[in-house]
Specification:
Layout (H helix, E strand, L loop, with lengths): L39 E5 L1 H4 L5 E6 L5 E5 L2 E5 L4 E4 L7 E6 L4 E5 L3 E6 L5 E5 L15 E5 L2 E5 L4 E4 L4 E4 L4 E6 L2 E6 L3 E5 L5 E5 L9 E6 L5 E6 L4 E5 L4 E4 L3 H9 L1 E7 L3 E6 L4 E5 L4 E5 L10 E6 L5 E5 L2 E6 L12 E7 L2 E4 L6 E4 L4 E6 L8 E8 L13 E4 L5 E11 L9 E8 L6 H92 L3 H33 L5 E4 H12 L9 E6 L3 E4 L1 H17 L9 E8 L5 E7 L29 H11 L2 E8 L3 E8 L1
Helix pairs in contact: 3-4, 4-7, 5-6, 6-7
Length: about 725
């Protein structure tokens, strides 16, 4: 079956001729427009929006909010803030369609729609339950509206949702399109079909067929009933809807598509078209097939494997790809006619809340309130804001690009914050956004409260004076008795202290060695944390604060790991050995559950070859031993290879001994380090962030359990630890 995401291996031989100048001016031939400003290209990676790097498609809503179909869900961008909304089973979102009242989405074995709830937040409703669970669904790459029906297309099935139920259309391995309010399907190797109101599939042009190709996009032209059909590898064609006939579109851009491959196209600026190619280019061309300009990685867009593109309400081109998003913008062609602003969030004493989640807020007097504004479709600095607080301000504030407003001295009462926005081109928001909140007057500021304070203060002073006088008399007598008793007690204890002091000198010598060796591991993360705090204080950039916090978290986790090693060391020294029957199956499962949160732990296969599931030993020490060995196998694994695994084997030797083997195909240990890996504070891996106590504790615990441990390792291939218990 053809693959919608295949890679076109054909190369464009003369691409240099299409890129005479990277900095260029667009001339709209059909509209005879003059040269305009040069384009602006901005790229967004997963570090900007904190979701998967893979994006499939996108669209813009009427309020200028932009949605993207992301590998991890629905990605929402309002110009300043990104938000990810997952769908059922955490399926990827691949296709989108805005039906005004709902946003329909197609995923992998999942499809449905998002609607805004009472809090104005997107909420997902699945249509998967309309289909029998026994049917395995493919990835839904297209969503096509026709009348009151919504059609979801994958290569295995095409479903029709009429608002009440889902019905199956008997066609597969095809792309579907709404052309002149008719549902047209282009099937691989078969031709063009029309799907009627009764879901019947009728052939209309069986000559337009390709063994491994089909129509990928159909776009209207200025001529009635004439449309441009673009195939993946066979260029463009003209479709006549009067008789469904197709003729080759022999043009400059069609030849380019035959060489570079065609992926997706759409209209732009009424008279132009824009498309992505399999070879990683963006082509702007006119209805005559003349290439206006060509944009690719060398021009500034990110990545080679581009997917779909769309035009937002500001005539910006958005391009999705496997490694992020790209925005192409010609300021001169920004035709946005209306903007919509709102109060996005409220911070109360540095605790952030969504405005929708705390409607009718009532806050305490003198609380630190910070409001954040947003205008979808515009980034910070592109919009001017003016605001006033009824009950506090007498007039609107001057226009400013600052999108926050802070209040710190509000007294008790009811307030309404009003907000309006204006683009730098002069477009003003048609309505005023407002938010109502109340500030509580504390009871302790009332007149009766102050009177009560005065009376209570006088009574309290009198009571304290009398109480202190009486207490001093009693304490003087007690002190005399205590001094006599303590003098005798001190003399008796001084002798005991001398004996204890001699014992402490010996123990202190032992502790000095341990403290000297461990001090660096304790101080290093603290110094790192201190440095990060100093940097974070001096850097006011909001974008960098999360990165600093992540580095701080690593230092804290490193310190926590070392302290845990010290606790394990102390536990091993002080705890008596009491052997009981241990269920090895349950113990390994518990440890595996704890390790699921390690970075990339989900990529490692845990193999269990347990010939015996129980044996008699001390459970707490055994848990620490296995946790250290399995955690090391995960931390220092080789994730660049295929099928990384960790294997734990348990068997009896037949002579009363139980043997455990822990094997991995990870990084391995260099041969010269093997004799020292069980030494205190020894690290065999230069990249290790551990304490160096782990394997030392493991060996000491095994010794206390009357067992032995040995290791064999080949650097670059893996390591095996063998544990033997009597």
């Amino acid at each position: 079956m053809p693959n919608y995401h295949k890679v076109n291996f054909y190369k464009l031989a003369s691409i240099i001729l299409l890129q005479c100048s990277i900095v260029f001016h667009i001339k709209l031939v059909a509209q005879d427009r003059p040269n305009e400003d040069s384009l602006i290209i901005r790229n967004f990676s997963s570090t900007h929006y904190f979701a998967s790097a893979v994006n499939y498609s996108g669209l813009t809503l009427s309020d200028n909010t932009i949605l993207f179909a992301n590998d991890r869900g629905l990605l929402i961008y309002d110009g300043t803030q990104w938000n990810l909304k997952p769908i059922r089973n955490d399926s990827k979102v691949i296709s989108l369609y805005d039906a005004d009242t709902a946003v329909f989405v197609g995923g992998d074995d999942e499809f449905g729609y998002f609607k805004r709830n009472d809090l104005n937040e997107f909420e997902f409703f699945s249509l998967r339950n309309q289909v029998n669970d026994s049917i395995t669904l493919d990835k839904f790459f297209q969503i096509v509206p026709l009348g009151d029906n919504i059609y979801f297309q994958s290569y295995e099935q095409v479903f029709n949702w009429d608002g009440n139920s889902v019905s199956l259309i008997p066609i597969n391995n095809a792309h579907i399109f709404n052309v002149e309010n008719r549902l047209i399907a282009s099937a691989y190797g078969k031709g063009l079909y029309e799907i009627d109101d009764n879901n019947n599939v009728l052939p209309v042009n069986t000559k337009f067929r390709f063994q491994d190709d089909a129509a990928f996009t159909i776009l209207k032209t200025s001529e009635p009933q004439k449309h441009l059909v673009f195939t993946s590898d066979n260029g463009g064609y003209i479709l006549n809807m009067n008789n469904y006939s197709t003729t080759p579109w022999n043009t400059e851009v069609s030849e380019l598509f035959r060489k570079d491959g065609f992926y997706y196209g759409t209209h732009w600026l009424d008279s132009l078209y824009v498309a992505t190619t399999w070879d990683g280019g963006v082509v702007v061309f006119n209805e005559k097939g003349k290439i206006i300009t060509f944009i690719d990685k060398s021009t500034g867009i990110t990545g080679k494997y581009l997917r779909e593109l769309f035009v937002d309400n500001r005539n910006k081109l958005w391009i999705t790809s496997d490694i992020g998003l790209s925005e192409i913008y010609w300021p001169a062609y920004d035709t946005l006619s209306s903007i919509y602003t709102h109060i996005q969030s409220l911070s109360i004493n540095d605790k952030l809340y969504s405005i929708q989640s705390i409607a009718d807020t009532c806050v305490n007097e003198n609380a630190n309130l910070k409001f954040t504004f947003v205008t979808p479709g515009f980034e910070k600095g592109e919009v001017l804001y003016s605001h006033r607080l009824k009950g506090f301000d007498k007039a609107w504030s001057p226009w400013s690009v600052v999108n926050t407003k802070e209040f710190t001295q509000l007294k008790g009462g009811k307030y309404i914050l009003e907000l309006k926005a204006k683009s730098k081109s002069g477009i003003e928001s048609p309505s005023i956004a407002s938010y109502t909140f109340s500030v509580r007057t504390p009871w302790f500021k009332t007149t009766w409260a102050y009177l009560l304070y005065t009376v209570a203060s006088i009574a309290l002073i009198a009571l304290i004076t009398w109480s202190r006088t009486l207490r001093l008399k009693i304490m003087n007598k007690r002190l005399e008795r205590i001094i006599n008793s303590r003098t005798k007690e001190i003399m008796e204890k001084s002798q005991a202290l001398e004996i204890a002091n001699e014992s402490l000198k010996v123990k202190n010598q032992e502790l000095d060695n341990f403290v000297y060796r461990s001090s660096h591991d304790l101080i290093a993360p603290l110094k790192s944390l201190k440095g990060l705090i100093h940097i974070a204080k001096s850097d006011n950039s909001v974008d960098n604060q999360l990165e600093y916090l992540q580095h701080m978290e690593k230092s804290v986790l490193k310190l926590e790991d070392f302290i845990k090693s010290i606790l394990d060391f102390a536990t091993n020294i002080k705890t008596e050995t009491r052997k009981v029957e241990v269920n090895l199956e349950e113990l390994v499962s518990d440890i595996a559950y704890d390790l699921e949160y390690y970075e990339q732990a989900k990529d490692i296969e845990l193999r269990r070859l347990l010939d015996i599931t129980t044996f008699k030993t001390e459970p707490k020490r055994l848990r620490i031993i296995l946790s250290n060995l399995l955690a090391n196998a995960v931390k220092y694994h080789n994730f660049d290879q295929e099928n990384p695994f960790v294997e734990i084997k348990a068997y009896s030797n037949g002579n009363g001994k139980t043997t455990l083997e822990i094997t991995d195909n990870g990084q391995g240990i260099k041969e010269e380090y093997l004799p020292n890996i069980f030494d205190m504070f020894f690290r065999a891996n230069n990249t290790s962030e551990g304490s160096g106590l782990g394997l030392y504790i493991v060996k000491d615990m095994i010794t206390r359990l009357d067992g032995t441990i040995s290791v064999s390792s080949t650097y670059g291939k893996g390591t095996t630890f063998t544990l033997s218990f009597n």
